[in-house]
Amino acid sequence: PPPPFPPPPPRRSTDEAWTHHTSGCSSPAATSRLTGGGESSGTSAPPVAHCLHQGYSSRTLRSWQGVAPISPANLVYPLFVTHEADGCEEIPSMPGQCRYGYRRVVSEVERLVHEGLRAVLLFGVVPQSVKDSTGSWADCPESPVVLALQLLSASAVIRSISTLLVADVCLCEYTDHGHCGLLNPHGRIANTQSIQRLAEVSLAYVKAGADVIAPSDMMDGRVAAIKQLLKSEGYEHIPVMSYSSKFASCFYGPFRDAAGSAPGFGDRKGYQLPPGSRGLAIRASVRDADEGADFLMVKPAGVYLDVIREVRNRTTLPIAAYQVSGEYAMLYFGAQHGAFDLKTAVLETITSIQRAGADIVISYFTPQLLKWLKEQ
Predict the structure, then answer these.
(1) CB contact at 8 A, 250 and 226
(2) pTM metric for this prediction
(3) Measuring CA to CA, which of 1, 41, 58, 247 is 20 to 30 A from 353?
(4) Which of 227, 231, 299, 374 is catalytic?
(5) pLDDT (0 to 100) of residue 10
(6) How many helices (H) and strands (E) does the chain have?
């Protein structure tokens, strides 16, 4: 009887194998192009199916090969708002970024709306003297975010093109202990009380004019708590963008400097995700989707591209990725010292974030990106 499989072919050298593989596959024209024309150089051309260059030989062809180019509609600009009405203070660790007073921020957003801005993400900054254990200044009438939302939502310029007002919801900027939730007498997170408080803050922001609520606290169950309270108050139409996969990262350093939100003791590793925890990141995003989140988020973006892709593969919800303050500072200072061209580096990082699966990019480079997009 014949053998079950034909005998293997005799082994050939690498050159012989390449010549055998390409013979009869490449055209004379292809061989001429690859060898510079004229007589053969002695090296056979690769098969036509393996020639890739022609598929990205022009700018338009290159755009067909990857994700759709970033547009203003996909960008969100984070802004820091203070209680000083007309203040404007540059942040040393984030050159080019400022803390704006709640009235001054309106003119800044209006200016950027004319450049194409379509969404902002607001963070409040308050003096240490008004911080307390419950973060009462997060949603009191004098809260900088509440005041800014009232003014921004009343702006005809901003509302004329439906620029989204996204309100970050967390307690770390407002508590005297600097943690993202309320604490029990033993100094641990009181989760049930925390999510109730976060829902109250969310409601206050919606009443002030927020279009989207973005809880960044990483408390268990906060999406459901926020959704339930908003629905009971007649605001079930307000979407929630959950910071669903938020890692305990060193790249938040400049932000904590800008917002004065560093923890007064300990750290946030008990509720923010461990950097190596891919499984937890997926579970957290799936959980928030199940609780009714309308958008998910991975934060930081650049060093967690694999997590963006993992979450993308498990949900049809839109995904935001936050290019955080440390990523901004790293790129800015690297370019300042001649390591690379800033525009080229920023565009490459944004493209990589999109390629990983993000639909929305939150970036402090948004004003520059709007300018560069217009130039292109």
Answers:
(1) no
(2) 0.85
(3) 58
(4) 299
(5) 55
(6) 14, 10
